[in-house]
Amino acid sequence: MKKKTLPIVTVKLEGIVGGGRTIATMGSGQRIFVWGGLPGETVNVQVTKKKAKLAEGVVTEVIEASPQRIAPRDEDSYLSTSPWQIMNFDSEQHYKAALIEEAFELHNIVLPEAIEIYSDGRDYQYRNKIEYSWYWDKVNNQLDLSFFRRGTHGKVPVDSTSLAMLPINRAGQAMRDLLRKKADIRAYDLKTLLVRCSQSGSTVMQLYVKNPDFISFTDREFNQLGVAGLQVIFSNPKSPASVITKILQSFGETSLSDNILGVPFNYAVEGFFQINLAVYEQALKDMQQWINTDQPTVDLYSGVGSIGLTIGGSKVTMVEINEPAVIEMRRNITALEREKAVQAILAPSEKALDHITGDATIIVDPPRAGLHDDVTDKLLAVQPKRIVYLSCNPVTQARDVERLSAKYGVRYHRGYNFFPRTPHIEHLVVLDLK
Fold first, then answer.
1. In this structure, what DSSP letter does residue 421 have?
2. Which residues on neighbouring strands pair with residue 69, listed in sequence order?
3. pLDDT-based confidence at residue 1 (cuts at 50, 70, 90)
4. Residue range 1-69, CATH number
């Protein structure tokens, strides 16, 4: 059966909605969510998905441009990585504040102050981690780095990304060039290339491959890459994610280290660690002023412990579900000689409720889904005096704050632009018992 061709429609774009797309109404009256456009623009849109009530699409031509529009730095791939490259930075800050305000208004929460979005002014070259896919160029008969096209399984070949720290782009190109010299390697042999860089510029790569008998690299080839470390990893091709099934080769230093507020952390390339450390440090400083270090601190959804170990005080309990993260957390606790003061718990936060006590300051930094209902219920039952809530999703944060508002009021809040040129927003709320 031949696949149905979807139309190109001309629409006038309205506002930006949660998730970062603009919305418009087609001539049929059907609403459409659009990537690549700005509010107020008249554009042609290629419809990519069409359902009974809603459609999705991508701008193919701008007929009347917004004064906020600028040329994207990554013209071919910006939709894959950072779809807000098309607007000036002041507009990005404005829209991020507006999306936070809208999320809280939908849950009947009025934030006490105007919403500020902190940025350190660096809107490119801030990412310390990039995961590339691979693409085979049939015209030039060569291997390329790539990203997935947004919303599809297709790929966009790239040379680099303007979001990444410069050593990451250099490392990616070096690996691509090395693999191009091996005539028997094609894109279907490879899964992804994960490149991570410390603030000092030390760079480590993980090459994920689909064949456990993948060709070996020599020491000389590793040295040509100009990186501190490399792992070649067989990843089960039945899994869509790049996960470690077996490490085939390992060269040099395969972990990284960084200081956060002067506290040293070691972390694995594939492990959880903040992408934009400069902005993260400011968020920690803002959180720190609300932490009484003389009282116990409970840090839920704690990752490798970068919150609890920097601002948590002298008695800290950290709870994390991810075992590799807890392994790194415990290594960091030992390296800092804080075994007597800090307890690491491997468990889902909703299974570690006994650690939530009335005499503790509770810090939560949950995933995008927000707080588990059992965690919220426990907080309402125990009623600690203060909850410090950092969120990567203001929509679920607003939902949680609405539930907690039966006992808590918003004392402080601030937004953070951890991911410039993307729609992603971090938001801090400090809740005090009424």
1. T
2. 87
3. very low
4. 2.40.50.140
